[in-house]
Specification:
329 residues; membrane; transmembrane; three-stranded antiparallel sheet; 7TM_GPCR_serpentine_rcpt_Srh; 5 strands; two-stranded antiparallel ribbon; transmembrane helix; mainly alpha
Length: 329
């Protein structure tokens, strides 16, 4: 039998935050103050991504410190946000709000990754291209896309919440007397007791959001490659853009793997009711807590903002990109 609240897990999460938060701050400083001039506007996209990652890290590692009592859809937070929100909103609403914040912060971090690929595609397009968006159009497109997903996730999650927690907790005690201590925690929250239509909708929306993000990144990569193949540019410029896209893929793949693989290890027992997976869920969360560390490390390694070019471009030298239509005129 395991403890109601494992202290080793709490200690592991705090040790993780003591490592990841300084690394994330170091990454912010390097991007903000030591970026190469050649990075131009790209560093602002990197900065936004780094800020989202750091906030998500703080929320998970110290703010909520979530415990999932796998394979049951029961969880409880144990971070500093718990006491603050509980005093303001009450017990049930506090845990619900913290769960919502974890979802939304993770979604925003995922969107910031997609934004990097979107920027890489837009910077390739010439000014005359019909898909070349202005700054205002980019802002509106990204905002509408992200807010729409935030709304869908929030509504679908709200629909699966059990309204009266005391009733469902009493029912859980009767159905699982040997696991009654799962719901003895005053901060515990039972999300769903049985698979129903609302639960299926939430799962479909969640997995669609994850899948759509990966699909969008792949489509942007293919569109970037197609645009480079149909533009009259030098082989050197084309290879430079391809190399930047390749670097971005390497950079993004490391933290995404460190996040999604453990999350799948948490969700799989929930979906198939695989028992004796409580410790697996905790270990998976500890691994998730390090994903921003891997993200910052890969960002700094592949972009190397401190590596200032020793051979600056000559005065007046620039790289001009022409579309095939303009060349034929």
């Amino acid at each position: 039998m395991f403890e109601e609240f494992p202290k080793w897990y709490e200690i592991s999460m705090h040790v993780s935050s003591s490592i990841t938060i300084p690394i994330n701050i170091f990454g912010l400083i390097m991007i903000a103050f030591f970026s190469k001039e050649q990075m131009k506007n790209y560093r602002y996209y990197l900065l936004f991504h780094q800020i989202c990652s750091m906030l998500s890290d703080i929320i998970i590692n110290t703010g909520t410190v979530p415990v999932i009592y796998s394979p049951h859809a029961i969880g409880s937070p144990h971070g500093w946000m718990t006491e603050i929100f509980r005093s303001l909103l009450g017990m049930e609403h506090s845990t619900w709000l913290q769960t919502e914040i974890v979802f939304q912060s993770s979604l925003t971090t995922a969107m910031s990754v997609e934004l990097l690929f979107f920027y890489r595609y837009q910077v390739i397009l010439p000014q005359s291209h019909p898909w070349k968006l202005s700054k205002l159009s980019k802002l509106l497109t990204i905002s509408i896309y992200h807010l729409a997903w935030m709304f869908l996730i929030s509504i679908s999650f709200h629909n699966i919440m059990q309204d009266d927690q005391e009733i469902v907790k009493d029912q859980f005690r009767r159905d699982h007397p040997d696991l009654a201590f799962f719901v003895e925690d005053k901060n515990s929250l039972i999300v769903v007791t049985e698979v129903n239509l609302n639960a299926l909708i939430f799962l479909i929306v969640s997995f669609t959001r994850i899948g759509s993000g990966l699909i969008i990144c792949c489509i942007l990569i293919l569109l970037s490659r197609y645009s480079l193949d149909n533009m009259m540019i030098s082989a050197r410029t084309r290879n430079m853009h391809l190399n930047l896209i390749r670097i971005l893929c390497y950079q993004a793949s490391i933290p995404l793997a460190a996040f999604y693989i453990p999350i799948l290890c948490i969700l799989t027992p929930q979906l198939f009711k695989i028992h004796h997976t409580f410790n697996l869920a905790l270990v998976s969360f500890v691994i998730v807590s390090f994903h921003t560390f891997f993200g910052t490390f890969s960002l700094l390694y592949f972009n190397r903002p401190w590596n200032v070019s020793k051979k600056p471009p000559r005065s007046g030298q620039s790289v001009t990109v022409f579309s095939s239509e303009k060349q034929t005129r």
